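Narrative of activities, Objective 1.

The group set out to show that a structural description can be obtained from nothing but a protein's sequence at a throughput compatible with the screening campaign. Below is one input-output pair from the validation batch, recorded exactly as produced.
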Amino acid sequence: MAGDEVLEVAGRTVRITNPEKIFFPALGATKLDLVRYYMDVAPGALTGARDRPTLLKRHPNGVSGDFFYQKRVPASRPEWIQTAHVTFPSGRSADFLVIHDEAHLAWTINLGCLELHPWPVRANDVDHPDEMRLDLDPTPGVPFADVRRVALVAAEVLDGLGMAGFPRTSGKRGIHVMVRIGPRWGFRDVRRAALALGREIERRAPQIATTAWWKEERHGVFVDYNQNARDRTLASAYSVRPTDDARVACPVTWREVPDVDPAAFTIRTVPERFASAGDPLAGIDDRAYRLDDLLELADRRESDGATDAPWPPQFPKADGEPTRVAPSRAKGMRENAAAKGTPEKSAAVKKAPVRKASAGKQKLRGKGR
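Output recorded for this entry:
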């Protein structure tokens, strides 16, 4: 079509439609600017997302417009687009996009995807993650300095386990730490290992770190262990976040973490950094670690009385999971039952109902996390 931009990428022809559409008004950055950014950092973006089933988060009108999530890869697509079949906690399934090379990357961004949301698995084995993820998410009012401190505690714990983590700014208020693991364990075991890791971080820094699932119980920086559950995703390395200044989820070195400023990494600054300083994520695939020590730590904690922690609401109730009701609500239920003189009803949650929404498009308004 007239006005479209045609790219020759990785031996493929990729058409960029509406290339001059403004995607970031505060910067005057267009859709084509976004595509060019991803081509500039493609080796790093592919290190984070290559050959992984990827959830599409589409902003067809840029950062100022509505967005929607799309699990199923669009039916109208080039014949060379790769896919993977995945199953969700509800029992439903879908064919996801798999970003294999620069051509897949450019095609994905043309759909209006500002950021990439890959699963922690590879397309050839969608049931065994090869990545454990720590999402360090500050509670409201907590300074970013505390996020940096918790990240350094995480590095200390991982180092004691003989494991290397790869940090990056989330592009918003947090820090992500990625750990490459061998694809030997299922999602449940990887989540259990991440919970054990989070609880050890919490034990070492109780004033600034927490694994409390319920927001009313949190303080400081939440170590989100549930990001390792099936069908949970994080914006991957070099993803552009839906912020006015087009911030990037940027890999950094551990030496940079004590002073890192998320505002320093945008689509305007990261390509030059990538070209001159290289990619801090480049060595992540050099070694895959085992989870044995973390799972043994989980065993020891459980023998001392620790229980599982709550799962996300769309998951069926797990064996050993505590009551999946906010503490304040559970207290209100007990007080109400006592006032009526009726036996206290169990607050335990039954199996989560299957959502009626399509696994394809789910329309949301506003800005993402």
